[in-house]
């Protein structure tokens, strides 16, 4: 008699490459495929352990000589807007929000290209074509939504967030907006609006991706109260972001990959039958 054993996720490591956030450093990622019937459970479980989704892959930094990248989330119940954030909410309050299924459009891609060309022309996504953009939006095996923000009078698309719906929150996978409106703080506004969405839905967290102390590109995340970071296997409240720096550590202080994988908590794939 042949017994079929459950297939556990297989984890892999990328080859080292230049870090896009901190000059002179190398990055490496631990990743696994997100597929099959257990994709939703796996995404929920690993998101709570500092992983992020990119299409059908989940990944987490696993650098040998740096520990600067910290997975960040906002505790919705602990969030209190600053005066600046209140002004951003007021300035953009006229925008019309519409949540749709993850389907890419030409209008989204046009806005995406203007955003990249203006703000991230030298980034890793700078050469992304329309087909790769469609894959980023549409290739998702879990509950994902495209949250669009448009001018109600002209219908013009102003901002977009690709958002995953988790058991315990919303994960803002990738956001982009009209780069010709820097005075409106559209990136900040989208986070504020997602906090409102989560609060209305009874979801406790907003997952923001990685906060990198010392990187100007990621500094905005530290401006939100209720911030938590995944550090050494657990979520810690960040009461003083200035106390964290993009520090390096000795290569021997990084746990071996096998140990990192062994410490990952996988979802229970064997529910008890009643």
What is the topological layout?
Layout: E1 11-13, E2 17-18, E3 26-27, E4 29-33, H1 39-47, E5 52-54, E6 57-61, E7 70-75, H2 83-91, E8 96-100, H3 106-119, H4 130-138, E9 144-150, E10 157-166, E11 169-177, H5 186-201, E12 205-211, E13 227-231, E14 234-237, H6 257-262
Parallel strand pairs: 11-12
Antiparallel strand pairs: 1-4, 2-3, 4-6, 5-6, 7-12, 7-13, 8-9, 9-10, 10-11, 13-14
Residues in β-strands, percent: 25-35%
Share of helix, binned: 10-25%
In the CATH hierarchy, the third-tier topology is known as Aminopeptidase
Alpha-carbon distance between the termini?
A: 26 Å
Explained architecture:
This protein is of the alpha+beta class and 274 residues long. The chain has one domain: 3-Layer(aba) Sandwich (Aminopeptidase). Helices cover 23% and strands 27% of the residues. It has an 8-stranded mixed beta sheet, with helices on both faces. The protein has a 4-stranded antiparallel beta sheet with strand order 1-4-6-5, with helices on one face. Strands 2-3 form a two-stranded antiparallel ribbon. Strand 5 and strand 6 form a beta hairpin. It is globular, with a radius of gyration of 19 Å.
Brief overview, please?
The protein is α+β, with helices and mostly antiparallel strands and 274 residues long.
Q: Which terms would index this structure?
A:
alpha+beta, eight-stranded mixed beta sheet, four-stranded antiparallel beta sheet, 14 strands, globular
């Amino acid at each position: 008699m042949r017994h079929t054993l459950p297939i556990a996720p297989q984890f892999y490591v990328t080859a080292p490459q230049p870090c896009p956030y901190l000059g002179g450093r190398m990055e490496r990622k631990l990743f696994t495929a997100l597929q099959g019937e257990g994709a939703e459970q796996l995404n929920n479980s690993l998101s709570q352990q500092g992983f992020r989704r990119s299409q059908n892959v989940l990944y987490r930094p696993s650098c040998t000589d740096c520990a600067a990248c910290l997975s960040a989330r906002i505790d919705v119940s602990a969030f209190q807007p600053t005066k600046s954030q209140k002004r951003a909410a007021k300035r953009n309050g006229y925008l019309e929000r519409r949540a749709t299924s993850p389907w890419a459009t030409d209008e989204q891609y046009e806005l995406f290209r203007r955003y990249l060309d203006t703000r991230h022309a030298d980034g890793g996504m700078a050469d992304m074509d329309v087909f790769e953009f469609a894959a980023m939006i549409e290739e998702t095996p879990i509950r994902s939504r495209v949250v669009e923000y448009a001018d109600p009078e002209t219908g013009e698309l102003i901002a977009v967030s690709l958002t995953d719906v988790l058991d315990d929150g919303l994960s803002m996978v990738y956001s982009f907006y009209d780069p010709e409106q820097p005075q409106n703080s559209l990136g900040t506004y989208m986070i504020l609006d997602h906090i409102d969405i989560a609060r209305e839905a009874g979801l406790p967290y907003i997952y923001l991706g990685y906060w990198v102390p010392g990187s100007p590109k990621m500094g905005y995340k530290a401006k939100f109260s209720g911030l938590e970071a995944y550090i050494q296997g657990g979520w810690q409240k960040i009461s003083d972001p200035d106390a964290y720096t993009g520090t390096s550590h000795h290569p021997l202080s990084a746990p071996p990959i096998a140990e990192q994988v062994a410490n990952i908590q996988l979802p229970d794939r064997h529910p008890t039958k009643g």
